[in-house]
Hints:
Blueprint: H1 2-26, H2 29-44, H3 46-49, H4 67-71, H5 73-82, E1 88-90, E2 93-95, H6 106-116, H7 130-134
Antiparallel strand pairs: 1-2
Helix pairs in contact: 2-6, 5-6
Amino acid sequence: xxxxxxxxxxxxxxxxxxxxxxxxxxxxxxxxxxxxxxxxxxxxxxxxxxxxxxxxxxxxxxxxxxxxxxxxxxxxxxxxxxxxxxxxxxxxxxxxxxxxxxxxxxxxxxxxxxxxxxxxxxxxxxxxxxxxxxxxxx
Length: 138
């Protein structure tokens, strides 16, 4: 009888641990943010920066393999939040266009930043959060 009870306790513990580990892998905040960011990108950004993130040479800077996004995290967030109107250099190319503010909320900006900084050859393990975006001032 003791063996049966011990076996049931062990089995219950194993099921509980496996269930919690499975939930953890299904609720990765960065992955969820990237998925939401993809939808936002499709709605607001794709017409200029294109589905492949390559932009339009000499007009709209590339987001794909972008040195600017990784080296200028705060400026990138600010550009999405308030618009971009100053010269920037992306992958050695100077861009001097205008990007209007998209009217996105701080959480939407965080999501789209997580998407673009983890797509098309970009890699960013440090999640952009709504709190971080809210601290960016004009």
